[in-house]
Structure formats: C-alpha cells, structure tokens
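User: My collaborator sent over this chain with a note saying "see what the structure looks like." That's all I know about it. Can you take a look?
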Amino acid sequence: APLEVAAELAEQLEGLRHSRDMEAQADRRGLTLLFDADIDPAGMIQIYEKFARLEKPPAAVPPREETDADSSPET
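Assistant: Without extra context I'll predict from the sequence alone. Here is the result:
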C-alpha cells in the first residue's frame, strides 16, 4: 500500500505542476492580448495588488510566493 500511496501522490504533484504551467502560459497570453489591443497592462498588476491586500485571495489566484517560485528558471 505505501507504494500505491507514493504513486498517487506523485501523480497529484505532476498534475499541480501542469496546472501551474498552464496558468503561467495563460498569464503570458493575457499580457500579449492586452499589448496587441493597445491596452495598458498596468490594470492587471493593480488587480493582483488588490488581491494581495485581501485577507484571503480568491481561490483561483495562487499565493505570490508560489507564482514567484514557478517563474524562476529551472536548473
């Protein structure tokens, strides 16, 4: 049973990594769309700053520490 639990945990962690990769890709695509539409992307920054000031950010927004770590280059 321990091997099955470890395999299940590994599968869940892999899914989280893919979810974060997809989220980062969506963020980059969103910025590209804003630039292409000649819309100032500062509004995107402002909304994330507002989320940071909330007692509890919306569930769809990961904590800042996670997004910073995910955007660092892999070694």
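A starting point for your reply to your collaborator: The CA atoms of residues 22 and 42 lie 22 Å apart.
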